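Good morning C.,

I know you're traveling, so I'll keep this short. The sequence:
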Amino acid sequence: MYLLIWAVLLEMLIVFFPVLGYDANLDLHVLGGVVVVVLALIVYRQVRKTSCPDRIKRIARSTAQLAVLDAVIGVPLYLTDMSILGVPFKEVIIFLHFVLAITIIAQASSSATAYDMWEEREFAPTPADQPRNPAHTS
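The tokens, ready to paste straight into the viewer:
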């Protein structure tokens, strides 16, 4: 799960620091995007097979869906100019692409932490969490 977070971060760094030149970095970014989508789908598939809480499975599923959506909106950025009627749609799509990448990092971090806590049984209630008189719980 953590590999997905690092892959998205690396993807962002590739765009922010084009040390290989614009065209080479763009191609590398596309390749990295494919890796991110594949990793997100693998994580979801693996988490779905476990008995972890459904919330973790839903977060992993939404992370995979966001990765696919980010890739889908990235394709037109790679292929076309995207200026329609003088409105700079490319900038809007770039912004959305960036926001989705940040969201993928947040979702993947959340599910990775929750999964680790579930795996280590850290979420189990402690005696201090138990009500003093179970008969009076609401």
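Safe travels,
E.
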